[in-house]
Design a protein that fits this description.
Elements (H helix, E strand, L loop, with lengths): L6 H14 L11 H39 L5 H10 L6 H10 L1 H11 L1
Helix pairs in contact: 1-2, 2-4, 4-5
Pfam family, one: Ribosomal_L20
Family: Belongs to the bacterial ribosomal protein bL20 family.
Organism: Myroides guanonis
Amino acid sequence: MARSVNSVASRARRKRILKQAKGYFGRRKNVWTVAKNAVEKAMLYAYRDRKQKKRNFRALWIMRINAGARLHGMSYSQFMGKVKANNIELNRKVLADLATNHPEAFAAIVNKIK
């Protein structure tokens, strides 16, 4: 008995991968084996970088808060320690936004905790 191959499913699988590789350079966009490797690697990078994005933003917020606090003669650690001690429940994202876009509001927070 002849071997049965489900070419419809195979073609659909290859087509899906090649569609994901659209826009890649050279053979990465149209040669099946190269495109498959490129798409798999891209998926790994996407998974990894969704985690790294959170770390990078937290680091950015800390830098911005530190810069804002130093304008008022405090370090980041002193500022955050006093924020927690005074039960000000603003997270780093909001504090960083205040430090960069609304310096007068940030100054009001600094004056409240001093």
